[in-house]
Specification:
neuropeptide hormone activity, 177 residues, three-stranded antiparallel beta sheet, disordered N terminus, single chain, 49% strand, Partner of bursicon
Length: 177
């Protein structure tokens, strides 16, 4: 079970149940594909049809075109501080430069007899491969009434932030790493 069966100039049996026809029109070739539970039947007039079908459904980037990288980004951070009874003591905020992962990764879609949709998808996403912890100083602090705090020790707040140090392509949805 599994894999593709290429049958050249062989009619598809009319007694197959649960078949789904698919028609691909190319320049001088008209091919019909019948998909069954046990495999795939192809009726074609050309040896090129399987190759044309593969290239028709392939959506991957050319080899070496991955552009997953770490880029600088501006982020507005707001941090609230509460006392032991849960009352707001102060709110601090600031614009901070942090790294982010951004870019394109090689992904592809190809015909498959095994998968329920008829296509095997291999999607890759640009994500962090290593996180670095940084201490950020928030410089604009306010009391619960909105008044600016200027007293030493209250006018700024240090927080820890984890940001991407390196980025690379990972299989999308794979959070096991």
């Amino acid at each position: 079970m599994g894999g593709w069966s290429y049958i050249r100039e062989t009619p598809v049996p009319a007694t197959l149940s649960g078949t789904t026809p698919f028609t691909a029109d190319t320049t001088n070739t008209r091919s019909s594909i019948m998909r069954t539970c046990k495999g795939a039947w192809f009726s074609s007039r050309s040896v090129l049809v399987p190759l044309l079908l593969f290239s028709m459904f392939s959506t991957n980037l050319a080899e070496g075109e991955e552009a997953c990288e770490t880029l600088p980004s501006e982020l507005h951070i707001i941090k609230e501080e509460f006392d032991e009874l849960g009352r707001l003591q102060r709110t601090c905020n600031s614009e901070v430069s942090v790294n982010k992962c951004e870019g394109a990764c090689n992904s592809q879609v190809q015909p498959s007899v095994i998968t329920p949709t008829g296509f095997l998808k291999e999607c890759y996403c640009c994500r962090e491969s290593f996180l670095r912890e940084r201490v950020i100083t928030l410089t604009h602090c306010y009391d619960p009434d909105g008044g600016r705090l200027t007293k030493e020790g209250q006018s700024t707040m240090d927080i820890k932030l984890r940001e991407p140090a390196e980025c690379k392509c990972f299989k999308c949805g794979d959070f096991s790493r």
